[in-house]
Amino acid sequence: MRRIKRRTFLKSAAAGLMASPAILRASQPRGTDVRIEDVDFGYEDYTYRVPIKFGGTVTNRVTLMNVNCTVRSTGGKSAKGFGSMPLANTWAFPSRKVPFDTTLGAMKALAARISSLTGSYKEYGHPIDLNWALEPMYLQAAEGISQEMLLAEPIPKLCTLVTASAFDAAVHDAFGKLHGVNCYHTYGPEFMTYDLSHYVGPEYKGEYPSKYILQEPRPRLPLYHLVSAVDALEESDLQHRIHDGLPETLPEWINYNGLTHLKIKLDGDDLQWDVERVMRVDRVTTETQKRRGIREWVYSLDFNERCPNVQYLLDFLHTVKEKTPEGFERIQYVEQPTARDLKAHRDNVMFEAAKLKPVVIDESLTDVEALMLSREMGYTGAALKACKGQSAMMVIASVAEKSRMFLCVQDLTCPGASLIQSASLAAHVPDVKAIEANSRQFVPAANRGWEKRFPGVFHITDGTMGTAHLNGPGIGAIL
């Protein structure tokens, strides 16, 4: 997209952002509109089966937030919805100044504030409109929490989106259940008051997410398995075995799940280690796939924004290509190599790197403006994530589809209902290449009770996830 289009978007988005609550109040509610009647939330804490390392940080625990929501239509009919999401503060609020427990505490304080704001908002609307009106309030609440807690660094926007995402999911879930349809049937003019031009700009006049989003899920998707920077690749890497019945080395996982897609976490601050890690993963995988009789498989590479500059990425890619040409050809895409603050690092343009492999924006993708800026900076792909909000993903996915970007759906070690939401997102966006899902590796205990109801999602046998049945009322997880 040309820069002028981003400027045009900024003007229209700013106007819409300021006007959105008033627009909802001024609009005559449609018969399909709902208002939020009640909201409550709670937490589940889990210890990871094995530690995971990303972004230079090793973590071994997670807090899962669960949200219940009741909505009521203009005609008085009500329905309950459910949303769930990990509070992944290590990823959403990375900080060298604020300790882990403090960032987690900030997210919990923000969740309480978001719950109050959401439950108190009594205007009618479509879930996307409700979220569009509430998000500025959420961001303002995050500023307030940052000041009240005297945080050394303010709560980032990404962190606010993650904290709010389960509330947004619960509203979409309740809306679909109230109307007796899957939520992906509700993103067209039959249910939405405004078209995409209201959220994005005039070039989307008359277009709705339904133009770019599938109503019925694709039946199967390739599954990306995470190879963490501290994961055991071979038997010699194991200090001791867990003996819990699950695989513990990369060949064991490949054989257990029939894997053909591997996501390799890299450090981004040690070129030799990063290159050797990819070469070693490729060697171990090649040996394993040869024994299985498999000839085709792919990798994605995730630096979690730790590359100091684009030159590091270029040096890495050229070195990998030189040392393992076949391994290089198996790289499907590279995810967010440099700093997430795109505006502060405009020199990190990806044009040269993107000539070698698709480069995907992830941590930076907090709104459509960021998507447009990433395109100006040479990014060619986008990582969609349920943890950034169902409402935002419907708008962002529409823009990304229209722009013909490389698309994938990334994980947040999502278990249970959060994985159902993530899988539904991947299955309903036409050009998504694959879905990452690693809760089965790191926190399988949180999936208990879900496997029998959604075996295709939670039991992987052929390297793909079965998503055909994610078409029930609501967001897909019938509770």
Explained architecture:
With 479 residues, the chain is of the alpha/beta class. The protein folds into two domains: 3-206, Enolase-like, domain 1, CATH 3.30.390; 211-466, Alpha-Beta Barrel (TIM Barrel), CATH 3.20.20.120. Helices cover 40% and strands 19% of the residues. The protein has 15 helices and twelve strands. Strands 4-5-6-7-8-9-10-11 form an eight-stranded parallel β-barrel, surrounded by four helices. A three-stranded antiparallel beta sheet has the order 1-2-3. A hairpin with a 4-residue loop joins strand 2 and strand 3 (78-86). Helix 1 packs antiparallel against helix 11 (368-376), helix 3 crosses helix 4 and helix 4 packs antiparallel against helix 5 (157-179). The longest helix is centred in the N-terminal third of the chain and has 24 residues, at 3-26.
User: How many structurally independent domains?
Assistant: 2
**Total helical elements:** 15
CATH superfamily of the largest domain: Enolase-like C-terminal domain
Helix content: 40-55%
